[in-house]
Amino acid sequence: MLPIFHQLKETDFNKLTLLGIELEESDIEPLTQEKKALQALEESVATVQHIFQDIRHSGQIPIMDIRNEIMPSIVQSTEQVHVFPLLISMQAKDDYTYRHNIAVGAIASMLGRWVGLPEDELSILTIGAILHDVGKMRVPEEILNKSDKLTEEEFEIMKKHTVFGYEMVKNCAGLSHRSALIALQHHEREDGTGYPLRIQGPQIDYLSKIVAISDVFHALTSDRVYRDASPFYEILRQMFTGSLGVFDRQILLTFTQRLMNALVGSEVELTDGTIGKVVLINPMDPTRPLIQSNETFIDLSKYNNMHMERILG
User: Fold this and answer.
1) Three-class SS state of 56
2) Which of 203, 229, 255 is the last residue of a domain?
3) What are the tens digits of pLDDT across the range 154-196?
4) Which end of the chain, C or N, has fewer beta carbons within 10 A?
5) Are residues 209 and 281 both part of a single domain?
6) How many C-beta atoms surround the C-beta of residue 1 within 10 A?
7) Are residues 177 and 295 located together in one domain of the fold?
8) Residues 224 and 282 in one domain
């Protein structure tokens, strides 16, 4: 996780002076717009935790609090923060349940911009993404916080969070029905293998498809109590090959291309131990780029048994 930056105020300098500590100009790192955006995003995790706990007790969604306290930090971060610092800052550890809501909101908002959504749809998307798991506030906490694998009966109860969330968002004045559909449909898949309704591609709202990708990507690239995080490029590869379910192909292609293009110039290690640099992304299969190792070029799209093992540096 990225470090948290603290903006020094006059009171801070006064306290340091009383302690006999004097700061030189070289001791203070300027707070850039990117760092300010990441700080605001980090603070929104604690805010969303309080909001969701209130939802669990009251059953009501405080939509104005979300619009005023959560939305601005997400919009600011997706506009001002480079993609990798944003993703790294959102990798969840012990606060997964609440950080996940902010992360999916940020990733979905970023992806929505990449696929060219107009501003009004971006707003609907971001609200829906923040609230995609709000139905979990009606799931018993002993199931929600269980560290072991859920029983079949417990998993059936957990799956109901999609319907609970749909009802809660639908009944919240001022929210679009499409935001409610995100809560209902974010576990549906293009081939009809998802839940709760097992609907297929054309029946799934486009915004729900964006959140489905964002949800799975963040969940599997975050540390959980029962498993470690997987590298983002490995998750992209699994999503792209369909081993994690069938997602909207064009949205997933855009997401994969943008993240992989950000790797161009990075040094990587391949599964056979070769060290090389990413020089070109294959537009048809972005998860298998062209790698340069010394004077040799390796086209990973031609080697099914070889892929990137890790990013170096």
Assistant:
1) helix
2) 229
3) 999 999 999 999 999 999 999 999 999 999 999 999 999 999 9
4) C
5) no
6) 12
7) no
8) no
